[in-house]
Amino acid sequence: MNLKSKNVIIFTDLDGTMLDYRDYSCGKVALLVSKLKNRGVIIVFCSSKTRAEQEIYRSQLKLNSPFISENGGAIFIDKNYFPFNYEYHKIDSGYHVIELGMPYRKIKDRLDKIREINNLSFRGFGDMGVNEVVEITGLDRVSAELAKKRDYSESLNLTGSEKDIVFILKQIEIAGLKWTRGTRFYSISSGSDKGKAVRVLLGLFKREYGLVSTIGVGDSPNDFSMLAEVDIPVLVQKISGNWEDVDLPNLHKVEGIGPDGWVNALTNLMMV
Ligand SMILES: [Mg+2]
After folding, report:
1. What distance in Å separates the CA atoms of residue 130 and residue 22, rounded to the nearest whole number?
2. Which end of the chain is flanked by fewer CB atoms within 10 Å, N or C?
3. C-alpha to C-alpha distance for 52 and 61, rounded to whole angstroms
């Protein structure tokens, strides 16, 4: 399908999708992003990354559109972006912030309790020093600091046998939390997800534009809820060369790992 119409909104994952898997750079998509922007296409990050991390890519790609942080934990909207009033929870650094997730401290407390009661040793970003985050992610030090600035979700590095991991995930569910698997890590939240955040933000876009066409691009299970909300869901290839396994109507499995797939998909869909 080709889209020529105005009011196209692309909801996109970052890690393993728009960003290079190894060095987290957005270099491969930069040219296409600028072409799409010139055509009035709106690009919305929808990522497990924190607000501070996403702000770096926003500035590199010169985007001013709203973005969704921490797997749907919150939506950040430049306060003058929409020309009408709408509900939000707070104003922070020039953003209207719509909060959908539980505060990080509460999530962390519950995870600490699970670890203590069951004598487990799993670790999240909040339990790690910057060096450890650098080691497991491959991020540079500054980016690792930004990745630790979590407000609505915790990223867990679950290692060990499948049985051990299943046990931990079960305890997380019993504690009233939800989990999802991203490109590298498990993300723990109170049940906020990318799909819910996309729905809320789409409501605002529809108020401004009426009809909109939506594309979603992702690589991992934490993207499924986002992909389910859009007209055209796209999966890029993972680093293994496989696509994540999911059954969604109209799903496009595009050739290309991460940003190569992103460029392929959007070049074809938007006839750039
Ligand atoms: Mg991803």
Report:
1. 18
2. N
3. 15
Q: Could you report the per-residue pLDDT of 72-84, keeping only the tens digit for each?
A: 999 999 999 999 9
Q: Are residues 141 and 207 in the same domain?
A: no
| C-alpha dihedral sign at 227, 73, 212, 210 | positive
- Catalytic-role residue among 13, 15, 219, 223: 13
Q: Which amino acid is at 102?
A: M
Distance 72 CA to ligand 1 centre (A): 13
Q: How far is the CA of 19 from the centre of ligand 1 (A)?
A: 9
* DSSP secondary structure code for residue 216 in this structure: E
Residue 93 located in a structural domain: yes
Q: Is residue 2 part of a domain?
A: no
13 has catalytic annotation: yes
Does 30 reside within a domain? yes
Q: What percent of the chain has pLDDT over 90?
A: 96
Mean of pLDDT over the chain = 95
Task: Give the count of beta carbons closer than 10 Å to the beta carbon of residue 32.
Answer: 18
